[in-house]
Amino acid sequence: MPGYDTHIRTLRLGDHDYRIRSLVDLQQFADPDHNAQRLGISSAQWSLFGHVWPAGRLLAEAMATHDVAGKRVLELGCGLGLASLVLRHRGADVVASDYHPLAEAFLSYNAALNDMPAVPYRTLRWDTPNETLGRFDLIIGSDILYERDHAVRLSALLPRHAHSVSEVLITDPGRGNSAPFTRALTTQGYVLAEQRCRMNADDLPPYRGRLLSYSRTAAAHARSAT
């Protein structure tokens, strides 16, 4: 027994049904080899990767129709990797990343549940350079600005992994930490387009959720580098 309980749900993402294995609740925890502890993941944080969160679902739905033709895509903090699974289903060139010790196993299991090839996965800590990962045309993430310091860490990561012409797309449930991230990306030449989004059935306009799309042209990148 793995020490935690899971269940399988069917989710409609875009125009396709996906079977997703997730943890049954937020009380699940298992770290027999202390891998999570060594990574700084507390027992309270441990289960967060293994749930279908509204922001993750919103990102997956966005990826069901987003233009990804000819683009290399990186998902940051993928958790269950809903968006990466949708992109894999569409045949996109996608790499999922996280640093939770079980993220890769859940992602691989869910790909198999949906009769698709495994999604390429890389362990990635945002504060640790990984020169082997390469660069991407589109970098995505759901609710990855949930701590105050994440804006600094993520904005420092992007120059290592984003092409000069690139897009960064993040779903934010309205935690209030996106402003410093937007300021940092502005200095890197990105322009923000923001869309308000319903995060759940109880949301009323103006919706608290946002789809943040940052885009950069080659000229803007050159200006920011001078």
From TrEMBL:
Keywords: Methyltransferase, Transferase. One of its GO terms (biological process) is methylation. InterPro entries: Methyltransf_16, SAM-dependent_MTases_sf. Pfam families: Methyltransf_16. One of its GO terms (molecular function) is methyltransferase activity. It comes from the Bacteria. This is Class I SAM-dependent methyltransferase.
